[in-house]
């Protein structure tokens, strides 16, 4: 484990990374604006779960393949970009069925699961997340102080937790705003278009990402 001075540096850097808006935060804000705070929270939980998959894979050494194989990186990158563009296009072509109505319990659960799983897939198919963990966390892992994979996993979970809290704060503000604006038919259309364009833009940014 890191010593006290390294923990201070690690936590400070983690806090900065968490609060600076990135693709993950922009994604959950877009979902919160289009679907309210509940959809935003489910998206946050989904992206956090997807990031945790990267932590486990990196701790096991699997994510190193993305850092060393241009082909693997490109395949995952294009798959993630295509999925984001698909979600964006689907938002753009969705029909405006008026103000949001209360869903039945079964329908609400299905919607919640779908939103959560979309968050998971979006984050899992983002190779830059894997590369971030591989580039940042090893600086604080010392094999002579204990199990390196366990230390990596613990530090990774701390990073994921900090990012999740920052995203939840963003959703706290974006969600109610989206719900209020949803009462205006014109704003509903603008929300849907903004959400769709944001996800398409994130997909385009992912295509341009380099394996650095």
Structure in words:
This protein has about 210 residues and is mostly helical. The chain has eight helices and no strands. The protein has helices at about 5-20, 25-60, 65-70, 70-95, 105-125, 125-135, 150-180, 185-210. Helix 2 (about 25-60) crosses helix 5 (about 105-125), helix 2 (about 25-60) packs across helix 6 and helix 2 packs across helix 8 (about 185-210). The radius of gyration is 18 Å and the shape is globular. The two termini are about 25 Å apart. The model is unreliable at about 95-105 (pLDDT under 50).
Q: How far apart lie the N and C ends?
A: 27 Å
Instruction: Please count the helical segments.
Output: 8
Low-confidence stretches: 97-103
> Would you list the SSEs in sequence order as H and E?
HHHHHHHH
Task: Give short descriptive properties of this protein.
globular; mainly alpha; 212 residues; 80% helix
């Amino acid at each position: 484990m890191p010593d006290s001075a390294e923990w201070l540096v690690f936590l400070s850097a983690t806090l900065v990374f968490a609060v600076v808006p990135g693709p993950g935060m922009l994604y959950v804000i877009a979902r919160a604006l289009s679907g309210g705070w509940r959809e935003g929270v489910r998206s946050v939980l989904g992206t956090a779960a997807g990031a945790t998959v990267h932590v486990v894979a990196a701790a096991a050494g699997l994510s190193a393949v993305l850092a060393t194989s241009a082909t693997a990186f490109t395949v995952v990158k294009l798959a993630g970009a295509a999925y984001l563009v698909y979600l964006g296009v689907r938002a753009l072509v969705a029909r405006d069925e008026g103000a949001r109505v209360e869903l039945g319990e079964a329908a609400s659960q299905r919607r919640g699961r779908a939103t959560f799983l979309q968050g998971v897939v979006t984050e899992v198919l983002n190779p830059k997340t894997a590369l971030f963990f591989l580039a940042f966390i090893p600086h604080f892992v010392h094999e002579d102080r204990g199990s390196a994979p366990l230390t990596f996993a613990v530090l990774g979970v701390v990073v994921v937790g900090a990012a999740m809290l920052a995203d939840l704060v963003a959703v706290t503000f974006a969600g109610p705003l989206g719900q209020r604006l949803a009462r205006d038919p014109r704003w509903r259309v603008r929300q849907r278009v903004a959400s769709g364009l944001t996800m398409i833009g994130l997909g385009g940014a992912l295509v341009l990402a380099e394996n650095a």
